[in-house]
Amino acid sequence: MNKDERNYYTTKVSSKFITTLGGQVFLYEWRRKEWLICNPVTGESTTITLPEVEAKDTRRSCYVGYDPINKQFKVLCTTWSYNGEPTTTHRVLTLGSTGKPLWRSIECNINISMHKGAHYVAGDICINGVVYCGDHYVEGSCMMVCFDFCSEKFSFIEIDEGVLHGTLVNYKGSLGVLGKDEYQLELWVLEEDAGNHKWSKSLCVRSRISLFQRIGNYFHILGMTGAGEIVFTTYRQSNRFYIVYYNIERNTSTRVNIQGFQQFKDHPYITSPHTFLDYVENIKLL
Prior knowledge:
Mean pLDDT: 77
Number of strands: 24
Distance between the termini: 16 Å
Largest sheet: 5 strands, antiparallel
Structural class: mainly beta
Oligomer: single chain
Number of helices: 1
Order of helices and strands: EEEEEEEEEEEEEEEEEEEEHEEEE
Helix content: under 10%
């Protein structure tokens, strides 16, 4: 990666952003079928070669998370079937371990599949060492797939009709789903009691003023802050780049302008900015 006097690093890769964790940025390098891990503070980078996908009609999905018990960063790599056949492989890699990186096979006897064009709950999110994915079929039913990075075991949660087509968020340490249309926001929170899961509608805000009038047309939900504010971010490159913090309890919003992106407007390799919540700088590369 190359650093210039403006204090940012540039590199040309045919990749898409995945997430940030532990001060690192994870990108998927689709041409070489590998992950690129970058440290924006130091400009260092390294790669992870992903397991091969052998079966047809399958898609590789990878998720990164933190095991708080063993204090380790891990990657889960799976192949999801589009045609209803059982998932071919589940593998886990521990980052930062000594020696040659080793993918370990994880058993799961449940039939997990993904259908093309399916969209049940958007995104995936890792909370307290568990990653949640909301767009899969489990034994023919729409379910949320959960993977615990500590025990390295799968579990499943039923998806209620009320949370369909929402976005997964971390609501004050609990799994939440935000649903929105032009005049309404709904927040659903997953409650757990003795191992039983229940979706509860926590908040519902209706407004006479369109959300698009308040924050703009080309925004999507990025997530929620620790204080419970919704963060909206733009998904279209423009002369102005800003994010909006929306307090769903008070029904108020705060706009924050971000400077420095104007120079990338006509950049041939940059189509839109990517924004990440809760990024913490780290001078070490995983």
